[in-house]
UniProtKB/TrEMBL annotation:
GO MF term set: hydrolase activity, acting on carbon-nitrogen (but not peptide) bonds
InterPro entries: Amidohydro-rel, Metal-dep_hydrolase_composite, Metal_Hydrolase, Metallo-dep_Hydrolase, OTAase-like
Protein name as catalogued: Amidohydrolase family protein
Keywords: Hydrolase, Signal
Region described as Disordered: 154-174
Keyword Hydrolase: yes
Domain of life: Bacteria
Naturally occurring in which organism (per UniProt): Myroides albus
Length: 443
């Protein structure tokens, strides 16, 4: 299927009702300042194109008529939210939908596009996709064929045989021995790659398609059938192969791993970001702190009665470990990032904002707001020259991307405001384009 026809699959029925202008002037807002953990005095903010051109307490005069003015009424202007561990395709679909013999690309892509639009309307203006057939959706969003957040794509996950990315059904045999790729591989969900040469090829394939970072499965998982949670996956040489290929392209490798053994091997091989890690010990966290390795954590909940018994059992040590890892990693000064990692449970997506509130067990409101904006943005830009959006993110500053939320209230005092975006996010802007505006506007 050609790219043009793939993009057409992502056009959704929802349309933007606000005329786009080159400039947006937001007047009388108090800006969330991460450095002082406070709101500024009333400010005016001029957006020109995709970036913030000027911020001033004084009146900003704008030349020409091509400007949309927004009266902020003293409300809070903050950066767009960032989730650094999403699966835009697999988070929008159930396993039954994906495996259904009646499923068509059209029906699946409609669900995915609707999910991307909903995520943007929840205030998430940037995400890092942690594995899946993401490139057509990203292209459609960038081409304004559909609405959604900026996407840092990993492409297909890279997994060993019997690893966390081996999603073969029982009747699907090994590609190496029987010559036929699995359905998941054909869909662009995963590469089952064994040995240094295959890992190099899989990594380079993802980079060829535009991956901004590489996702490698380095340990057991809870949503995969063949691998116990405690197993270590990939040899040092295999992980090092992915790291070498990624670094040659100026970017990095992120790994799925929970245990100290798997994480320490990945760090020794040169990996820069650990995804999950809820079972880590103090020794491993100290290594991460000393080497500046990111810990991209989630705060999972055991709240799905429909989950099969095997997966529930595999999740137990992960759920038990996260209450220890979050505060210990904070205490040790590990670089922390936050994401949701919803997978094959689209009903959870509407709770994306509420999951942020669960960080209040370990962090102040100011620390949380900084983590889900500025800190997460720093992790995104670890992609360096491979970043698809190389500008400044996660802050409301001059020359930064105009990814902005106007919040009805002060989230520093009441973080629950961000858990109801439909009510409390009265303006949503991404890249200078207004996607929601329930204030009175004038042009």
């Amino acid at each position: 299927m050609k790219l043009k026809s793939i993009l057409a699959l992502f056009v959704v029925s929802t349309t933007i009702t606000f005329a786009q202008t080159k400039q947006v002037l937001i007047e009388n807002v108090r800006i969330l300042n991460h450095e002082t953990a406070s709101l500024t005095e009333p400010m005016n903010v001029l957006v020109n194109g995709q970036t913030i051109e000027k911020i001033s307490p004084k009146t900003i005069s704008v030349k020409g008529n091509d400007v949309t003015k927004i009266n902020g009424q003293g409300k809070t202007l903050m950066p767009g939210l960032i989730d650094v561990h999403v699966h835009m395709v697999f988070g929008a679909l159930t396993m039954e939908q994906m495996m259904s013999p009646t499923a068509t690309p059209e029906s699946l892509m409609k669900e995915v596009a609707t999910g991307a639009h909903s995520m943007l309307m929840r205030g998430f203006t940037s995400v890092r996709d942690a594995g899946g057939p993401i490139f057509p959706l990203k292209a459609a969003i960038d081409a304004d064929k559909t609405a959604g957040p900026r996407i840092w794509p990993s492409g297909a996950t890279i997994s060993q045989t019997a690893g966390h990315g081996d999603f073969r059904t029982p009747n699907e045999r090994s590609r190496r021995f029987f010559g036929k790729p699995s359905r998941a591989e054909e869909m662009g969900a995963t590469f089952i790659a064994d040995g240094r040469d295959e890992v190099l090829t899989a990594t380079r394939e993802n980079l060829r398609f535009g991956a901004s970072q590489i996702k490698v499965m380095a340990g057991g998982g809870t949503s995969s059938a063949y691998d116990p949670i405690d197993v270590t996956q990939y040899t040092f040489d295999e992980i090092k192969a992915a790291v070498d290929a990624a670094e040659d392209w100026g970017t990095y490798v992120m790994v799925h791993a929970y245990t100290p053994r798997a994480v320490q091997r990945a760090i020794e091989a040169g990996v820069k970001s650990i995804e999950h890690g809820q079972m880590l010990d103090e020794e491993t966290l100290k290594i991460m702190k000393d080497k500046g390795i990111w810990l991209s954590l989630q705060n999972l909940m055991d709240n799905n009665d429909n989950m099969d018994a095997q997966r529930k059992e595999k999740r137990k040590p992960v759920l038990e470990g996260q209450d220890k890892v979050w505060p210990l990693a904070k205490q040790l000064g590990v670089k922390l990032a936050w994401g949701t990692d919803f997978l094959f449970e689209p009903e959870l997506n509407k709770e994306q904002n509420e999951y942020i509130l669960r960080l209040q067990k370990w962090f102040t409101n100011a620390e949380i707001l900084k983590m889900v904006t500025q800190d997460n943005a720093e992790l995104l830009q670890l992609s360096g020259l491979r970043s698809p959006y190389p500008g400044k993110l996660g802050v409301v500053e001059e020359n930064a991307y105009a990814d902005l939320l106007l919040v009805d209230g002060n989230p520093l005092k009441d973080l629950s405001l961000i858990a109801n975006p439909e009510k409390n996010f009265i303006v949503i802007i991404k890249g200078g384009k207004i996607y929601k505006n329930t204030t009175s506007t004038k042009k």
